[in-house]
Every structure is written in structure tokens, then in C-alpha cells.
């Protein structure tokens, strides 16, 4: 918008006189050799631009100013284009003496027209033609464009007359916006001045509302496509919410509506305060600095701040780690705070704009507008009014008169279903200093806040508005500490504050009965939870201590204890909230990483929970937490694990879980299977029901047991020693691959390797052995396609890969190598390999848990090592949190005993750590090609319990 942008320190970028002198020498020396002249010119310009860019990059590290860097690069581009234009006219087309009326004009438009460029930005040019262009005009423009393209620039260009430009801009808002930012570069200045004069008189005059509506609509659609949140942890710095494009939109609107040339004029017009204008400048400078560093680093027009570049950008900008926060997390927190500032400025700007437009409506239109804008009273308050469905202030002193109104505004909006008028939010932003300790300790303010939090309408929406306006972080200072805080991992998609608000949104949806299909158990038990208030408070605060050196669950419980007292919760409610926050991760971790068929797992979990009310609340909190992590993180399979844990724990807490009941249930399950195989011959039915051990009968649903029975019978009739069966499950978002094979200690290793080779991500493995020495393993992999037929084809190919590897038709090391060839190991994230070996988590098994950076083939390598160490895997539980994997194996030695020898435990840990650190590549070479043992070979055994 600002046509006066200069490039501080630009003199060091390029010696214009020297460049022109070298070009003149090229022209005179190669006057008779046009091709050689063109090549020499191209080389000279390339060299000058490359050296200038390097100077701009070095200066960016010196002064840190993004705007200065963008202006320097724009100035550098100006000189290149000007020299190129003059060379073309003087030495290629001999048009230096052409009359003014015949000359063309080269104009910078779009972002380049603002006088700011990032290293990889497009160069947007408008070549203006006179009314009667000379014959050389088109060839000269073509010559310049080809040189610019050969230099590697992405050039957006148009060649038009003034008349064409005016006509096209009437019906095309993109062309109108481009011309709005037009800036003269070289050629005929009178031609440019005529364009601008006609544009301001014929296009801009009287069309402000139309332009503003179009630009705000474009912004809203852009935000919608980007996820409609500025808190995505890999934001688009240009197009994302709170990014540069939002600032550009304000530039365009201000220039069009107020007819200004310099942003600072907005202060004189009363649109922005001096403080807000400085905030505007700081935000723009920071975003340009990040964008320039990003382009320099990647060598291209990359606009997405992906995980792999964030640490390097943070280092370039000089961020240092802080206890609890890494350097990159501090950088990204600053980024999101700036994005929030951009949102605040947009809101303030739009409020002023709307108010001024209403005042400027002439004649009868103004009278109608005033009538339409007549505010309605809101029952129960004199401080706020309803302006056409939007709550706004009754007078400018409303917050000074009673600071509780800063909370009451949001409460009344919630009660009456009102949107927020920009005037109200602008005054809120300018009144944040009133949120002090007196207001925080005010009983009425805290009562209103609890009412907002537990609202039966849309508490997440109101909390988000409170957060965006700055009230929430000021009213709860501990919440303010996690505003805009990101966690540098691939698991969390949003900043911590956005995650917490989304968690409340999920809870409200469950509470209102809108999530019964996705979360049947949570929806079923929610009405029976007696203390809704404690649950809502716990959901809002469960991650409030993120970013601190200590465990955030423990620190969060401590913070919650103080806040609950302030909110007016009873001692019993406070203890409930404290416990929920301290234990908010336990149910998810137990469900996903432990064997839920192991009685000790359920006993230990029940000992921690102790009551059904806690169990209910913890289940709902866990669902809300996982759901709010980000799209695609929750799936029905995780829901099934949580439901299983809930039901098993419910039995124990209600006194219905015992070893006797387990045996009785197994006997009953065997009888039900016998009855379900009614169309089988009696002898076959009896034989088959004795084929399975108790864990299978207790774990696998009857419907699946019948499917497995038909599958095994079909394989036996066909004489197949090896067979696979696939099934998709859209609700659980998993695909099931069942493998029937001769038992073998390396079976899981081979299956896991085959899945890795086929690109299938395993989420769980159910391992069962039949009484006749065969393995019936069910592997659950993440669903890849939404369409069942596509997923079935993909699952069938995974099944064929498993069969090929098990039968020896394909060698596992080769297929994995093919899958991973050319794939670089990510250096973005580092997770120190960790191995935990416990004999207290199960009565029958040693539990080995590994934690490390995920990679293709990892599970296959780990299980190969466990087989090498003569360990029998009874069950495996695979859990992925973004880039981190936590795999748990329930094992015994080959005699069925726990691993109690300390030296052997240390050896297991060392071998596993070596594999996790990729220091044992020879493990791949030890993987068997197939496991169908020849006659006389003894297959390994696996636990039957």
C-alpha cells in the first residue's frame, strides 16, 4: 500500500553505474552478434542479481528487519528491470529516441507494486501500451520477459492499453486490486500517471463498499480453506489466518476507501491509535523477516512453516531455549502471538470502517441506515445493546464504570445467542488493563465465567472470542502463559490454548447429545455424571501447565487447585478436578499401550481410579482430549480400546470381576461358539470349539469367531497351510488382516515387515495360537481410503505381500529396502530411544515398552531382535503419537517364564536401543525369507495365555 517504501542500505546491493557500464560495453563489443549479446547480457544481469540477493541476505542477519529486506529485494529487482528495459530500447530495437507518445511503460503491480519482495516472490508486471503502440513495442516486451524468465524469475505479466485496463478492472476484482497497487518502474511516466488518474476517478470513486465486501469475502474463503484458525502448528505465513495476506487485505481496503498512500495516515484519520499502528508495523516486519528467511533457506517460494524448517528459522532469528520451551517453540509462540495481533488489528480496523461507512451514507440512505441500525435493548442489562443480532456497548465508559462488564459482555452474548459487534471487541481490546487482580477475585466475574464455561449452548465459541480478544489470558494468567504456545511435534495440530478450547467444544457436543454416533459410551454416561462443573473445569485446564520444566500433569493439578477455589468450587469438586488433571493421560496410555486382557492391567487401573464417578469423568475427558488434538488423530479403534478398558474396570469396581468369573465367561463363550456353528457337523463343531484357548474366546467377539471358523475351515479344505483374510471397518477407521500360518517365533516379525513393505501402518496386533500348533494372528492397520472398495483392494495387496513373504516368494530385506530406498531419515525430530522392562505390570508376562522415533520397518526389526533373544511374544500393542512410537510387548522366555535375570534384562535393553538407533542394520539381514518350515523342522511356540 505504501508507495514510499525505501530500501535501507540498498546502496551496497548493486553498483548501478558499474552495471550500466558493463552493459554498454556488451552492447558496443557485440553490436553485430545479437545472440552473443543476449547471452552476455543475461550473464551480467544474473551475476548482479545473485550478488545483490546475497548482500540482502547478509543484511537481514545484521539488522533483522524483514521489511527492510523485502524493500531491498524490490529495489534490486527495480534496477534489473530498468537496466533491461533501457538496454532493449537502446541496443536491441533502437527506440531510444522514440517520441514520448510511442513509449511503453513498465509498471510493478500486486505485491511487487507495494515495493516489497521475498526472495522467491513472483514478479508481477503490467506493460502499458500507448494508444498507438510502435511496431517494436511487442517484440521489446517479449525480449524483456524472456530474459527475466531465463534468469529464473516467475513473472506474472499483462500487456494492455489504459482503456483495456480500466474496462477489465470494472468487472474483475483481481485486476482492480493489482492496479490499485501499481507502481511506476520505467518508460513513459505520463502514461502511468494517466492510468492512475483514470483509475481513481472511474473505478475507485463510489465503489468502496463493493470493493471492501469483495476483499473481506475473499479473506473469509481463504481462511476457510486454511482451516479457519490461526493456530495450526504448521501455518502458511502468506495465506494463513493472521498471515501477510490478512495485512495485505487491510492495505488494499485502506488505500481504496481512504485514498491514502501511507499506512501512517490511518492514525491521523483515527482508524488506528499510535500504539496500534506501531503494532501493525512490528507484525508486518516480523512476518516479512520470517518469510524472507524461509525463502532464503528453502531456495524457493515456500510459504508453509513446516516442522523441518522451523528450527532453522528459529536459529536464524536468534531464539534461545528456555526452561520448558525449546528455541523453536519460543519462536513459534512469538509467531502465533503476532498472528493474534493481526486479528486484533483487523477487528479494530473493520469496526472503524463500518462506523464511518454508516456516517457517510448520504441523504435518504443515511436515514434508512440509522433506522435500520436502531439498537434494541437486551433484557437484564443497560450496558449492552443488540445491534442487528450483534452485541455492542451502550456507551464508551461501560468497562471503566464496571470492569466485570468485560466478562458480562461474553455471558450476555452467550445467553442471547448474539454475535459480537466489532465496536465492542475493539473497546475490549483497548480495555484489557482493567483485567486486574481485583476483577480476577471478583465473585460475580468468576460466577459469570463458570456459567460461560458450562453453557448448554456453544461455550467453545464464546471462550474462543474471549481468547482472541485477550480477556481469557488476562482473566486466567496461567491460561495466558499457554496462549499461542505450540508443541514441536507431529502429534498436536494446534497450539495449546486452541487445543483446550476445542476440547471444551467436544465436551459440549457430547453433553448436548450431538456425538452419540461417534462416541456412544461417552454419550451414554454423560447424563449420569453428577458434577458437570468439575468436568468442564478439568477439560479446560488439563494442559494449562504445558511448557514448564516439570510434568505438566502435576504442575497443572497444582494450578487447578488455586483456580478452583477462585472459581468458587467446593473442596470436593476441587479434589475431583485436581485428580482428573493429574491423571488425564492415564486412561489413554493404558488403553493404547497395555494388554486389556491381562487382569493385572485392569486391577492396577481400577486401583488408581477407585470410583465409578471418576471412571466416567476420566473417560469423557480422555475422549475430549484425543479428539481435540487434530483431524485424523481420533478413530473408532481408539474408542473401542477405551470402551473395553471402561467395561472391564466397571466390572471390577462394581465387584463383578474375578478369576472365577473369567473362567465361567470362557466356558460360556465356548458354548456360544458351539451354538453359532449350527450348520456344521457335530464332530466338526466339537473339534473346532476345542481349537482355541480361553484368551481368544474372551477377547474376540462371537461374530468374528464365526468368521474365523469359516476362514480356517476353508483353508483346511483347500489344503492351504498359509492363508490371509481381510476386512475393512470404516467406523473404527482400521482394516483387519487375519493370517493363518504354521506357528513360528518370527511370525510377527515377518508379518510386520511385510506390512511395512506394503506401506501399511500397524496400530495393533492380536496374537493367538491354536491347540494344533497354528497361529491365528489379526493385524490391524490404519485405513487409507474412505471408499470401502478402494480399501479392500489395498488390503488385499497387503495380504498378498504377507503371503509372498511368509511363503518365501519374496525376501523381506529386499522388499523393505525397495520401500525405503531414497527416503531420507527425518532429522527434524529427535527422540532418545528408551526401553522399560517391568515384571510388575502383569502376573504372567514381562512387559517390554520401547519409545523412539518412528520409521518404516521398525516393528519388524524390534520383533526380530526379541526372537533372536529367545523371547516369546504373547501380545503386541503399537501406539503412534505423531513422529513418536510407543510399542509394548508382553513376553516370556521359551519356557513360559518371566525374564527376571538382571543381566538378561540389560542385554535386551541394549539390543533394542541399538535397533531403535539404527545401529543394528544387520538385523534386517537376519530376517527370514519365509517361515513355512520344511518337514522335520520344529516350529517355535508362543504363549497360549
From TrEMBL:
Regarding activators and inhibitors, the annotation says: Uridylyltransferase (UTase) activity is inhibited by glutamine, while glutamine activates uridylyl-removing (UR) activity.
> What cofactors are annotated for this protein?
Mg(2+)
Report domain HD positions.
496-612
UniProt-listed Enzyme Commission number(s)? 2.7.7.59, 3.1.4.-
Q: Where is the ACT domain?
A: 736-817, 847-928
Claim: Repeat is one of the keywords in the record: yes
Q: What reaction is this protein's catalytic activity?
A: [protein-PII]-uridylyl-L-tyrosine + H2O = [protein-PII]-L-tyrosine + UMP + H(+); [protein-PII]-L-tyrosine + UTP = [protein-PII]-uridylyl-L-tyrosine + diphosphate
One Pfam entry name: NTP_transf_2
Keywords for the protein's UniProt record, in alphabetical order: Hydrolase, Magnesium, Multifunctional enzyme, Nucleotidyltransferase, Repeat, Transferase
Q: What is known of its domains?
A: Has four distinct domains: an N-terminal nucleotidyltransferase (NT) domain responsible for UTase activity, a central HD domain that encodes UR activity, and two C-terminal ACT domains that seem to have a role in glutamine sensing.
Q: What does this protein do?
A: Modifies, by uridylylation and deuridylylation, the PII regulatory proteins (GlnB and homologs), in response to the nitrogen status of the cell that GlnD senses through the glutamine level. Under low glutamine levels, catalyzes the conversion of the PII proteins and UTP to PII-UMP and PPi, while under higher glutamine levels, GlnD hydrolyzes PII-UMP to PII and UMP (deuridylylation). Thus, controls uridylylation state and activity of the PII proteins, and plays an important role in the regulation of nitrogen metabolism.
Similarity comment text for this entry = Belongs to the GlnD family.
| Stated name of the protein | Bifunctional uridylyltransferase/uridylyl-removing enzyme
For this protein's source organism, the top of the classification is: Bacteria, Pseudomonadati, Pseudomonadota, Alphaproteobacteria, Hyphomicrobiales
